[in-house]
Amino acid sequence: MQLKQLGLSLVSLMAGTGFAWGNGFHSTLSDAASNGMATAGITRMEAATTATDLPAAMPFLEKGVHALGGIARVSSEFEFTNESTGAKAETETPTILGPHLFGVWGNEKFAFGISQTFPFNSGVKWPEDWSGKQVLTELELTIGNTSPVVAFRMGNFGIAAGMDLYDGKITLKKTASYGFDVPVELSGTGKAMGYNASFFYNGDNFAFGVAHHSKFVLDGKGTADFDSSGAPNAPTQAFVDGLLPYGDIDVDLQLPAVTRFGISYKDKKRNPDVFIELTATKTDWSHFENLTVDFESNGSSSVIAKDWQDTVGYQLGATFVVSRSSENTVKVRVGAALDPSPIPEETLDPLTPDTGRTTYAAGLGIVHGDLIWDISYLNVTTKKASSTYSALSGDYEGGAQSIATSFGYHW
């Protein structure tokens, strides 16, 4: 049982929780403009963020070089109510900073782009003495994606393909029990490679795009460290040390394919100052069935069932030009989203307490010549949901906020 719980912790550690956007632990955030539209707007063709939102749209940008970078500040909070005791616990979640960087070079027929994002960049801290301390007390997660892409344009149509190169770094802390508390720290790194492909149609008033990111397997390697110094005596400590799987741990994490569909309206002749898009995000979480964790020190393995379900989330966003002059253009952005949870109640745990999300967002954008600046705010609320997870049953609810800013330039 202890090995199974340690394996479960490492699996959740590798998964993490990108809570502010998307569902499960997947994030669809690209830049501050996307944040202000609740992550809708993949067909908007405004800046270098097309390199990740919809690479097939890159040749539709102005000819030349486009660059954009920024940062998102994310904070979240959760509350857990223990089903057996009624005791409540609240997270002490640290602020997370998620940078983003994009570059596009191209003309009206061909474009090359590259992006650096952190789709899994999160952290959570539960009280040291809470009822779920044997599952989790603290998590820190950073997983980056470097994605080079190429795109070709044929009239009103664009196609693109590229690679997704993932590099992760994670640390998890919990407390194991062997008649006394044994603090545990699991840390590791992982790499993976996937592909992406996209299609874009830019009509007179309507535009349509599809962006697909393949499923992939993150090859994770980590170490398990234990502190058994709290043992009542030396023989007990020696006995427990003999049971603990110190050393290297291997885990292959199956991550889902993600496909986004966007359809937008913009009357380019009569009212070009209004852009509206409906986006649907399909995440194939059924690929995330189970995990096998190998403990190299004693040759044991632990298979953990997750049994997540496929989801389709919907994002609706709009951009309004409220002021236009020879020097400046001012834009207001708004958005809302509904994202169901992929996690069944029997595997809902404190590392990914996703119970389904409702999102509202707003933002401001300013274009000054070739300079672009955006700032936005996003708020996420979750519905209260029950977990029958065997190690920790009870109710979860929570929310998150994100403030993002981006700066871009065109040469």
TrEMBL record:
Pfam families for this protein: Toluene_X
One GO CC term on file: cell outer membrane
GO molecular function, one term: long-chain fatty acid transporting porin activity
Recorded topology in the membrane: Multi-pass membrane protein
Listed InterPro entries: OMPP1/FadL/TodX
Domain of life per record: Bacteria
Localization terms from the record: Cell outer membrane
Entry keywords, A to Z: Cell outer membrane, Membrane, Signal, Transmembrane, Transmembrane beta strand
Signal peptide segment: 1-20
UniProt similarity note: Belongs to the OmpP1/FadL family.
Protein name: Long-chain fatty acid transporter
Species annotation: SAR324 cluster bacterium
